[in-house]
Amino acid sequence: MALLGIETARPARWIKNHLGALPSILALVVVAASWVVGAATAHAYLTDADSPLAMLGGLYVGLAAGAVSIIVTTLALNDLVSRYSRPRRRR
Fold first, then answer.
1. Sign of CA dihedral 21, 24, 26, 32
2. What is the pLDDT of residue 12?
3. CA angle 60, 63, 65 (to 5 degrees)
4. Within 13 Å and on the Cβ side, how many CA atoms surround 14?
5. Is the residue at 75 inside a domain?
6. What gap in Å lies between CA 47 and CA 69, rounded to an integer?
7. Count of H-run helices and E-run strands, the chain
8. Cα→Cα distances 35→30, 38, 62, 75, Å
9. What is the pTM of this model?
10. Mean pLDDT by 10 residues, the chain (91 residues)
11. Domain assignment of residue 69, yes or no
């Protein structure tokens, strides 16, 4: 793999050096995936609702999920920005 210019030790080293940022990065990935899955399934769920009450319940669940995902995204981005905007100390 070294002949192709691909170093396998480099991603492991990056993860080791940035272990504190990993939860925030994973939170952003999970939120992005939930938005994609939610967009793909919400339309089918809401169009096949049997009653207005079921549709209203689905809309409230979607609203709550959207609000929670925005809060999680804001917290994760705030953590990443504060983590990487500080001046670096020399080791």
1. negative
2. 73
3. 110
4. 6
5. yes
6. 23
7. 3, 0
8. 9, 5, 10, 17
9. 0.73
10. 57 77 93 92 78 86 94 95 77 54
11. yes
